[in-house]
Amino acid sequence: MGTLFGFRQAAFTDPAFGSFGDSGRNIISTATQVNVDTSLFKDFRITEGKKLQFRSEFFNMLNHPNFKSNSLNVRYYQASAGQYNAAWPSRQIQFALKFIY
Description:
Elements: E1 3-4, E2 7-8, E3 38-45, E4 51-59, E5 67-68, E6 86-87, E7 92-100
Antiparallel strand pairs: 1-2, 3-4, 4-7, 5-6
């Protein structure tokens, strides 16, 4: 088996019955997450006490792929162990108008 997530799958076996094994906590690290969110607001005054606000919000603005590593929950001997098989959503943009009185 190959090296995935920086660990050799062949190095892992089931612990003896009634024991917990000897691997430490957090010994496997996955891909880093890069996420930049930002928003822009512009107020347009209509009268003294009323204004219209234009909003634009950008989620994952750099459109960086953030891979999910949910396959670490499967057993080490399965074919899909340690493989990236999904990603978090790509860039999302939303616009809004808000009337403030």
